Amino acid sequence: MFPSIVTPQPTTSRASQAKGIKHPPGPPWPTALWNTIKFGQDPLSFARELRERYGDVVTLQTMMGPWTLVFHPDGVRHVVQENHQNYRKGGPSDQVLRVTLGNGLLTNNGESWLTQRRLIQPAFHRSRIAGFGQLMTEGATAWLEETQLDASDPLDVFQQMSGLTLTIVCKALFGADMLPYKQRVFEALGTAIRLEAQAFYMPGLLSLPTPQRHDLYKARDALYAVVDELIAGRKARATGSENDLLTMLLEARDAETGLGMNDLQLRDEVITLMVAGHETTSGALTWTLLLLSQHPEIDARLREAYTRVLSGRAVTIEDLPQLTFGRMVLEESMRLYPPAWVFGRQALAEDEIGGYRIAKGAFVLLFPAVTHRHPDFWEQPDVFDPERFAPERATGRHRFAYIPFGGGPRGCIGNQFALTEAQLILATILPRYQFRLLPGAKVIPEPLITLRPRGGLRMTAHRQDEL
After folding, report:
1. In this structure, are residues 199 and 96 in contact, taking their beta carbons and an 8 Å threshold?
2. What H or E segment, with its residue span, contains residue 233?
3. pLDDT score of 12
4. Angle at CA 395, nearest 5°, toward 394 and 397?
5. Residues forming the annotated binding site?
6. Is residue 4 part of a domain?
7. Distance (Å, whole) CA 421 – CA 462
8. Annotated binding site for heme: which residue ranges?
9. What torsion, rounded to 10 degrees, do the Cα atoms 12, 14, 19, 23 define?
10. What burial letters (b/e) apply to 16-40, b meaning 16+ CB within 10 Å?
């Protein structure tokens, strides 16, 4: 049975009332139904409209109860870093994700989360990530050879990047080829992600015996079956010399207790790493290829950098410090189209943000998709300009004006893995191919669990030596 999704109604103490601290402004409560519909139809535009009309902290009345929307980097910093003990994963977004991810690092809380974080952290040390560099480059090269790109045959770039990054993360996790499982995982993840996004706005989909709940349960079980099979296979093949992520998780022991993970914890963490490890990177790559196709002068400059540094040879992780413009392009792409476009917290106790009262139990939403385009921190915020991330321009910028991987103690543990992987994939593909959007194609962002192009992204790939 899936849990019903209920947002606790905020309560406000008499002490804060006596201080005269105001509730955040926002649309009046009779608009709750309309707000819910509008948020469900186009949350990105609606959130920007709310910031422009009401300011950087907004109360939004919805059919699931009032939400508090925080857009200013100061408010983000307060929630995820300065007073993070008061804000736990919770609310409808977290309850929806738990259906698939269980009690993994992304959804866990409290001491249990801290224990898991300590166990997993060594697996993502920079030295470990460096060891995966060759795997990432080889995966991108193999994809080029297997796909046999042809300019006369358009491809769905989002689907292709999803397949590539899923293959790489599973190779890093299990040391195994993902091909026999890829179609099953794609179908299960596609169903789960879409139904979980719907359930955020329609809690009854999970709390009632609906067809959607049945389909989500079926997709989750299919995903569990694949992961259990991969874990079992990995254990059966163990020789003692493996260096994959699963081996690190199996061998991890808490420094204080000496305990490792039980089988359920292991599965939850593996699924979390599998989903988060390919969804965010594939999204970043997809939006980057789109933006480069729309800005040929930036595309040409990036290719010139690859030619100058690589001279036709395969990229290695040691080349990345010289390919700084590639990282700048990726960072600007994730500013405009952050894969994790929104994330939520729940207030454990009453608080204050930006001079406004945050009630106990309030569901607080932070919006990288809006904060990344905040006009007080970004000049011409809707323009694609990788030079924003040149060291001389980035110096002094508010640390929390740019949060593609969150921030504070709960910042994404795999951020360096994702950035390294994306840079190496681009540096493998782009020296050989240029991607072009199909004429007349209209690309619409679709904010599901991550930010995707609605209906995929159809592009053609042209060999550089034929241009």
Report:
1. yes
2. helix 211-236
3. 53
4. 70
5. 412
6. no
7. 23
8. 412
9. 20
10. beeeeeebbebbeeeebeebbebbb
Count, residues in the chain? 467
Give pLDDT tens digits for 249-286: 888 887 778 888 888 888 998 888 888 888 899 999 99
Are 446 and 436 in contact by the 8 Å Cβ rule? The answer is no
Backbone φ and ψ for 81, nearest 5 degrees, come out as -130, -60
Strand partners, 462: 434
Residues 6+ apart with CB under 8 A from 359: 10, 11, 12, 23, 347, 350
CATH number at residue 255: 1.10.630.10
Number of structural domains the chain divides into:
1
Inside any domain, residue 3: no
Residue 59: predicted pLDDT: 97
How far is 444 from 5, CA to CA, in rounded Å?
Answer: 29
Rounded Cα gap, residues 349 and 341, in angstroms: 26
Which tokens hold the place of 102?
Answer: 């269980």
Cα-based distances in Å from 356 to 20, 21, 57, 447: 10, 6, 8, 28
Residues of the chain with pLDDT under 50: 1-9, 18
Query: From CA 76, how far away is CA 87, in angstroms rounded?
Result: 11
Neighbours of 63 (CB within 10 A): 16
Query: Does residue 9 fall inside a structural domain?
Result: no
* Three-state SS sequence of 84-132: HHHEECCHHHHHHHHHHHCCCCCCCCHHHHHHHHHHHHHHHCHHHHHHC
DSSP string for residues in 274-315: HHHHHHHHHHHHHHHHHHHHH-HHHHHHHHHHHHHHHTTSPP
Q: How many CB atoms lie within 10 A of CB 153?
A: 10
Question: Tokens in use for 381?
Answer: 């915020």
Tokens at residue 216, please? 């989500």
Copy the structure tokens of residue 143.
């994809």
**AA identity, residue 253:** R
CB 94 within 8 Å of CB 88: no
What pLDDT score does 240 carry? 67
For the chain, what is the radius of gyration of the CA atoms? 22
Contact 301, 430 (CB under 8 A): no
CA atoms within 13 A on the CB side of 58: 26
Asked if 449 and 193 touch (Cβ cutoff 8 Å), the reply is yes
Domain residues for the domain of 30 are 14-466
Distance CA 142, CA 134 (A): 12
**Residues sharing a CB contact under 8 Å with residue 124, sequence separation 6 or more, in sequence order:** 413, 414, 416, 417
- Is 58 part of a structural domain of the chain? yes
Question: Kind of pairing, strands 57-62 and 65-70?
Answer: antiparallel
**pTM value?**
0.91
Amino acid residing at 242 = E
